[in-house]
Amino acid sequence: MNRMTCLLSAALAVALAPVAQPANAADAVPAVKPVAKTQVEIYRIAPGEHENFLRFIARVDEVNRAVGLPVRQLFVHRDGADWDFLILQPAELPADKAAAFDAAWDRMGMPSGGDFFIEIRKYIAEHSDTVTSGPTTAADFLATLKR
Cα–Cα distance between 119 and 75 in angstroms, integer? Predict the structure, then answer.
C-alpha cells in the first residue's frame, strides 16, 4: 500500500466515523439500502495559495446552493500527515439538476473545460481523488452482497 493510499484510508476512517450508529431493536430487520457514491479528494496546496483555493471552493459551493445541492464537506488538516484539505462530495450530479447546475455555473462566471483545469491547478501542489461507496454502515453494505 503506497503512502497516499494509506493516507486516504486513514482520512476516510476519521471522516466517516460519525456516520456509524449503534444497532438497536428497530434495526433488527435489515432493509437493503442503496449505497451512494462519494468522491473523496485530498489536496496539498501550493505555497501561499490556501486562501485562494478555499475561496474558489466556496464559489463552487455557491453554485451547488443555487440549484439546491449540498455543499462539499471540507476537512482541514490540523496535525499529522502532509495533506491540507480533504473534501467529500457526492460523486454524481443528479440528472434532474444537471441543466440547472450548468446554467448556474455559467451565470456565476465559473471556468469550464481547459479553463477549469488551469484555474484549479494553480492552487494545488498535489492531489488525489477516488470514488467510494458510502457513507454507509457495515450492516447496510453487507446487505447489498449477492450471497
Answer: 21
